[in-house]
What we know:
By secondary structure, the protein is an alpha+beta fold. The protein is 34% helix and 21% strand.
Amino acid sequence: VSASVLAQQVPDAIINIDGVGFSRVIEDDFVAFDLVAAYDEHSIVVASCDQFKASAQGVDWCFSNAANQGAFEAATQEDGRNHYLPFVGGHCALGMSLGNLTAKGDPRTAVRIGNQLVLNGRFSVRTTFLQDSERNMDNARLRYELAIAGGKLKVND
């Protein structure tokens, strides 16, 4: 197997669809969600990528209004880090805690835990995750960091 084929098989560290994070295909339609609204207002709001978009860590993030885009941009540091970015790159947090590097988080399941915006693959998975969120977050964070360090997740440029 060639190196280029192997590189294509390595999942992204930050979940994205065609370069847009905090998004999902729902009934064959691409939908981006506003992660600032999810983080600050605890609400799931559809974003407008045509009007409000910013980049961080090699991924575009869309917003529902200029104020949320501005808040995101103001929080983006020179190294691309931003407290609004989803926990473990938007992977399913329970899946990551169990070592599943390909389980994608669904933005509609977003819940803020402390200063982290946590996603899971389904609402039933989120319920299981929340039963022991502290342990699950510790395990997910560790497995995510080890997967990046070990080259099992590729960092977006």
